[in-house]
Model the fold of this input.
Amino acid sequence: MGFEPIEQRNLVEYVAEELTRAIIAGRIRPGQRLGDARIARQMGISRAPVREAARLLEQRGLLISQPNRGFSVRCPTLQELDELYGLRLCLERYAAREMLKQPRDFEKPLNRQFERLLQVARSGDSSALFQEDFRFHLLLCELSGNRRLHVLFSDLAAEMHLIIALIGGILNDAEQLALTHQPLLEAALARDGERLERELDHHVMAAWEEVRTLFRARLSEAASAEQR
Done:
């Protein structure tokens, strides 16, 4: 785990973003304590903005604090996983309906993001692929024109990234994962609301089931390891 020295006016938000990236990439694992002194030293800043960033990420659900132990990466539960994916489905359905009502052109940004997904999939960078995957879905929220929806989904995506980090990824075929977004794109470009909602249901439910299965397997492995 390493961080580059930075020079930023908004240090707290910048540090929060860097810590989030480290969690998503698996460089800071669920349950791992944050060494604020070491992080501050690596970034070339004082400990104060690191602590403020940690408090911000605690509000966003990525970190937890314990008396005399500082901050550590939260270990999500199966119930939290189900709550997140259930809420995600509701938000994306609403985003899709609102997006299709907008007069602005959404075809170009969706096409660009889909091409970006394919490009990253072919590069073999699994961490970047998951980020671009969520950016595709975040784009639906952005194109809905509802700013609060965009903010809500951003926070939700950060927690889902934490779960992906916990289970160590779900990547069997990177290009196939990217291509699962093509039916969503085609339905959106056709401006077919009912079809887009059906495709979203299928897409999110399939991801939900796969992540849930792997999450339960990781919990079982952890329990077995503790009994040894």
About this structure: The longest strand covers residues 63-66. Residues 193-227 form the longest helix (35 residues). The CA atoms of residues 141 and 164 lie 21 Å apart. The chain has a mean pLDDT of 86.
